[in-house]
Amino acid sequence: MSIPKFKDYLLLEKNYSLHTLKAYEADLLSFQEFLLAEFECSDLKNVDYAQIRNWIVSLSESGVSNRSINRKISSLKSYYYFLQKVGELSISPLQKHRPLKMAKKLQVPFSKVEVATVINDIDTDSFEGIRDKAIIELFYSAGLRRIELINLGINDLDLARLNIKVLGKRNKERYLPLLKSVAKTIELYIEQRSHIVPDTAKTSRLFISSKGDKMSESLVYRIINTYFSKASAKVKKSPHILRHSFATHLLNEGANLNAVKELLGHSSLAATQIYTHNSIAELKNIHSKAHPRNNKD
Questions:
Q1: Is 170 an active-site residue?
Q2: Which domains does the chain have, with CATH numbers?
Q3: Catalytic residue among 77, 97, 145, 184
Q4: Would you place residue 197 in the very low, low, confident or very high pLDDT band (cuts 50, 70, 90)?
């Protein structure tokens, strides 16, 4: 069973993004190259766990992190599951595999002061300026994923009712509230957007490049990284950290965990709970300052 047919399965049945498809394909081709070099074969279907284990060891010795190795093996697992599903394989060679242990990464959110500084300092006299402000405000006020923001259409906005329709993972739709201040920024942006693309027939995407094209993931990343590099000394400055900040700040202000889960578009509470460590840290700080039994000396 060919890799292209597996990609069709991921795209048509699993509704995976093109970005994810490329990652899966790259992982499979990498393993295929390893098999060819080490065992003089390239048939992914007829391998045993020992060969996969050799690949894992080779990756580790090359300095690939356990996290990246686990992702690559996850791609293989999905491929073998697909082969089982279509009757090409009876037992997966990864049936008894256990993921490599990974050190938990602590993702540090931006502070409320850092976010406010960035938003307030953006020069909105240009198309790029008002667009970038709208992007940053929307990321921070709605907690969008990067691909969700890129795929937003003008028709997904309801500025009168202050809400926005978002297409999340697995094509699941959710409606998110818009702050009045964010809606105002978006209105100003749309006015400037009409000068770049007068006819929405060219692209119905809400956010576009200065040339009128759909925005790339790398451009969105550069926008966030560039602005926050001026206001924050944190190591990682990305759209995901802004989404992380959205969730953390809501929890710090007392938002219900289930409500934050729905806003983020998570399918389970477990995915949302990773943001609670910062909330707990804030609660500890408040508790320490306010509790009468605390020794303030």
A1: no
A2: 3-85 (1.10.150), 112-287 (1.10.443.10)
A3: 145
A4: confident
